[in-house]
Amino acid sequence: MKKLFAMALVLCMLLGAFSVASAEGVTTFTMWTFIPQHQEFFEKAAERWNSVYPDRPIAVEVTTIGYDDMHNKFKVALQADEGAPDMCDVELGQFPNVLAYSDKLLDLTEAMSPYMADLVQARLEIYAKDGKYYGAPLHVGAMVCFYDKAMLEAAGVNYEDIKTWDDWYQAGLKLKEADPEAWMGTVETSTQWVASLMLAQQGTDWQADGKALINTPELAKVIDTQKSWLEAGICETCPGGQPDTEEGKAYIANNKIACVIMPFWFMSRFTDEIGENCKDRYVLAPCPVFEEGQLQSIGQGGTGTVIYANGTNPELCAEFVAFAKVSPEGEAQIWDVMGFDPCNTAIWDDASIMKTDDNKFNQYFIGYPIDALLPIKDNIGYIVSTSISPTINNYLGTTLWNEVYVDGVDTAEALETAQDAIDSDLF
Amino acid sequence: MQAQAVVPVSRGNGKRAVILLVLGALLLVLGVTGLFSLQGKAVRFDKAYDTKDDLSPYFFGALEEGQSYSFLQNLWFGVARFRLWVILAGIALIAVYVMMNRDLLYSQNVAPYVFVAPFIITFFVFFLYPFISTVMMSFQEITGAGTRWIGFKNYQDLFANKNFYTAVRNSVVYMVLTCAILIPVPMLLAYMAETGLSRAGKLFKTVAFMPVLCSVVVAGIIFRMMFSELDGAMMNQVRGLFGMKPITWLKDQNGSMFAMVLLCFWRWTGMNMLYYMAGLKSISKELYEAADIDGANSVQKFTKICLPLLKPTTIYVLTISIYAGLAMFTESYMIFGGNNSPKNYGLTIVGYLYRYGFEKVDKFGFASAVGLVLLVGALIITLVQLRITGVIGRKED
User: Fold this and answer.
1) How far apart are CA B331 and CA B259, in angstroms?
2) Is residue A292 located within the same domain as residue A325?
3) Which of A83, A206, B148, B180 has the most CB within a 10 Å radius?
């Protein structure tokens, strides 16, 4: 019996050895991401790659790790120059931190160059340093308004008539009159999707030339606008701090919010997490502005895939990432699998890709979501992200918004304190 | 006869084999030096060596045209590549030496060193070396490009930073509150379990101890949901029972601290109860009987017998609670779903260290300074506490 068992064991080992031998020639890449949907996307992309390039087969081993954990581990791995995966999805807000180790990352300029002309330049720039592109972009992340069409109509508001923030405010008052339990929208306290949009509309940013721009009249206007929403009772501060949190999504699922102002990729949170409750209720539209002619959207959020220069065959890896994320077929997949607005805006107009009726995003929302972006296609701004951004974002998300929106601190006073605190933290 | 025959042989072996010991020790030192000289780039060095790649980034610098490595340099590459085998060979030689001098195994001079060796090695590798390294790092700027000595700059930055004081305040308040709650309450509960509730005692003890077994991560997430600001969240429902309006717990300073202290209370009451029950068991029954005869009631018995005799337990619990309070991190991290909390209400000293060491880049030196300040602070408070309670510095007469 023992002998038999031993023989079986030896046989297994031999078979194991053979199976390894037969898999020779397949290059296996390791990858880290913090979004489960990306795992599926990259595994599918590897399948497509193998059918297109059967002579250079690859395999991708994707590991999904929590947001903070993954970025912290990746930074430490880069610093130690040991233990980093071959590729990693790095979130935009963390990108400047990772770019500090750009000498250990592969320059993707060459690999992406065949497709670069079709891509939104601003989305490439956010992942660049000294003219070299280190991250393959995923989407534009254009800000849009998700309006609950029926709720607004019941209050006598047509969402298409909302052109300025003032219209939006008036619509909120009407809504509140019709249904005291409804809210026009939310005010974020842990991040700044809307505040960034409003700043960009006024032609400014959080920073310029490596200095934080906090104590500015533009930001004061942003805060006072949102404060007026809270004072008029048309908005609450968002549970969880912002819509893209467990609590925020539960709040939206209650069907009491007439307008969610988030980037285009928030669609996937509706379909995958908020669920049936909100199906066929929301319609997408460009965002309001302060004055006619201002930007109706900016690109926000996103992940850039970086490649570890000392990993397994980095050149092949770069080719694969370009194939998966920025080639026209890859971009079509980004829309199809994840519902993101691809960086290749040429395909936005392609109804055979963007307006298929079996697509789950087209089914979930009223009308075709992409229609909200087509009129503003060439007019999507962006926010700068540099090495001082994490410090600024940290202060805004933990302190400033809570002071002005929750504690009711005077705007001018809070901005002055904020400027000092951020400047002193940038050592 | 026998003894005469054995002694010269073993002596002779011992003399000859000393070479083995020296060689073994040399190989051991060489192998360990090889490991450390690679400075954490071992895996890539091995790969480069195996594929005959350029080795200059690791040792000896770049070669000029036509130059090749000398024999000794090549030997060193070999040692560094096969460091594991070198170390094992060193250990094997030493083992052979010991086997040839078996009397060493029975030597009363050597045995104590062998027995404490595991502790000494662990202490040096995992405590002393990191500690010294941290002290050094706190005076350095450590970036991806290299390290630089910068004197006291890290400490200057630290004491000039506002958030540091927020972190210290939060940690100290948390420490004081947890000590104030987690000593009297478990003591009373233990007293009750040991005396009054003797029948329900076993079940009561089990139930009280159960939270200790719960992972802090799981507990933290549950608490986050309980203290959610949604109207349907548990703590807001509880407020509703008393006719109070829902509040945004975790966006409020007191609410946040309450949530963290409650989590700590829920989790550690059982553990501290266990300490106190052990302490109560060691108090002899005769004292109670004597008190009964004198007509003492249970309050008097508690204050006059239990309280003084539980002092050693209390000092122990206080000491660990002080350190645990100051070093708290996971609870806050889980309750706030990350290291960032509204207005840094949940920021602790360790959270602050984590923010600079791991969330920001190139701040390892600064984070080391934070760690040392925490160490010194905790040490001072504990020493003062031990001095006041008389554990140290007491005259033995």
Assistant:
1) 10
2) no
3) A206
Angle between helices B364-388 and B129-137 (to 10 degrees): 120
Statement to judge: residues A376 and A294 lie in one domain: yes
Q: Enter the tokens of residue A190.
A: 């842990």
Q: Which residues of B touch A236 (CB under 8 A)?
A: none
Choosing from A328, A354, A380, the residue where a domain stops is A354
Pairwise pLDDT comparison (A375 vs A13), residue with the higher score: A375
**Residues A317-334 pLDDT 10s:** 999 999 999 888 888 888
The model carries a pTM of 0.76
Which residues of chain A are at the B interface, by a Cβ-Cβ cutoff of 8 Å?
67-68, 71-72, 75-76, 78-83, 97-98, 100-101, 103-104, 189-190, 237, 239-241, 245, 247, 250-251, 310, 390-391, 394, 397-399, 402-403, 406, 421, 424-425, 427
DSSP secondary structure of A20-64: HHHTTTPEEEEEEES-HHHHHHHHHHHHHHHHH-TTS-EEEEEEE
In 3D space, the residue among A214, A257, A208 whose CA is nearest the CA of residue A234 turns out to be A257
**Whether A149 and A129 share a structural domain:** no
Say if A13 falls within a structural domain: no
Minimal Cα distance from B226: which residue of A?
A247
- What is d(CA B120, CA B127) in angstroms, rounded to the nearest whole number? 10
Number of domains into which chain A is organized? 2
Nearest to B40 among A80, A240, A397 (CB): A80
Q: Buried b vs exposed e over B76-106: b needs ≥16 C-beta within 10 Å?
A: bbebbbbbeebbebbeebbeebbeebeebee
Report the CATH number of the B156-388 domain.
Answer: 1.10.3720.10
Instruction: Give me A68's structure tokens.
Output: 């903070």
Examine the domain organization and report whether A276 and A305 are in the same domain.
no
The verdict on A35 and A76 lying in the same domain is yes
| Three-class secondary structure of residue A307 per DSSP | strand
For chain B, the residues whose C-beta falls within 8 A of a C-beta of chain A are 40-44, 143-144, 157, 160-163, 228-230, 248, 251, 337-344, 358-362, 364
| R_g over Cα of chain B | 30
Strand residue runs (E) in A75-171: 87-91, 128-129, 132-133, 143-148
B337 contacts in chain A (CB < 8 Å): 245
pLDDT, tens digit (0-9, with 9 covering 90-100), for B90-114:
999 988 988 888 787 788 888 888 8
Specify whether A166 is located in the same domain as A260. Answer: yes
Domain housing A197: 143-300+371-425
Residues in chain A within 8 Å Cβ distance of B234:
none
Contact criterion met (CB below 8 Å) for B52 and B58: no
Q: Has residue A4 been placed in a domain?
A: no
Q: Is the pLDDT of residue B306 over 80?
A: yes
Does any domain span residue A129? yes
Token representation of residue A54? 């059967």
Count the neighbouring beta carbons within 10 Å of the beta carbon of residue B263.
Answer: 25
Rounded CA-CA distance A132/A115 in Å is 15
A198 near A300, Cβ under 8 Å?
no
Do residues A205 and A158 share a domain?
yes
What does the alpha-carbon distance between residue A13 and residue A20 come to, in Å, rounded to a whole number?
11
Q: Is A295 helix (H, G, I), strand (E, B) or coil?
A: coil
CATH of the domain at A201: 3.40.190.10
Q: What are the DSSP calls for B226-246, one per residue? A: HT-SSTTSHHHHHHHHTTPPP
pLDDT at A21: 41
Q: Which residue of B has its CA nearest to A189?
A: B342
Nearest to B251 by CA among A401, A181, A195: A401
3-class DSSP assignment, residue A284: strand
Q: Which residues of chain B make contact with A240, given a CB cutoff of 8 A? A: 228
Structure tokens at B333: 């991290």
pLDDT mean across residues, chain A: 88
